[in-house]
Amino acid sequence: MAAQARNTAPVDIDEAHLIQQLEALQPSQQLQRAQLFEKLYPAIKSALARKVPQKAIVAELAKAGLHLSMGGFRSLLAAMDEQRPDPLAAMQKTARPGA
To answer: At 98, is the secondary structure helix, strand, or coil?
Structure first.
């Protein structure tokens, strides 16, 4: 079988414009929400530790432009809890009784 010849002719591309277009691309809204939630996670956990209702946190997030359903909030919270386990809870799990 003969190898196909590749088209090696120069391509007329406006590199500066293409770079500008690529730099203007943004991640999906879902990923943007997840990234923002990740940044807010410590404050959210702090509010939950103070017994602030999840509904109040979701309402405050919505006022700031981060609109999440309760299910979406809980899903992101669970995902972040898996990524960033509570150090105190981890220490309690590994502590041996009577040690």
So the answer is: coil
